[in-house]
Amino acid sequence: xxxxxxxxxxxxxxxxxxxxxxxxxxxxxxxxxxxxxxxxxxxxxxxxxxxxxxxxxxxxxxxxxxxxxxxxxxxxxxxxxxxxxxxxxxxxxxxxxxxxx
Length: 101
What we know:
Elements: H1 22-25, H2 39-81, H3 85-88, H4 90-93
């Protein structure tokens, strides 16, 4: 009769408790007891957030400008491929709707 020895569990998943008694002993620290950040650090983070917002706005404007330039280039190339400009504008002038006065 040979009994195999059980191997010790040497791993723990992230969602498992490592020390079962700890949650019953410790409680979360209340927010008012946590150390506050200094005024200089808060000012620095606010200035950083301000410049990040400005840079994001500038990036949005540059993206809009690039899209507009791309659309204009496409229009210019489409007009250059047409032998006659009136042929390019034909879809716009094909529908003639009388305007009621």
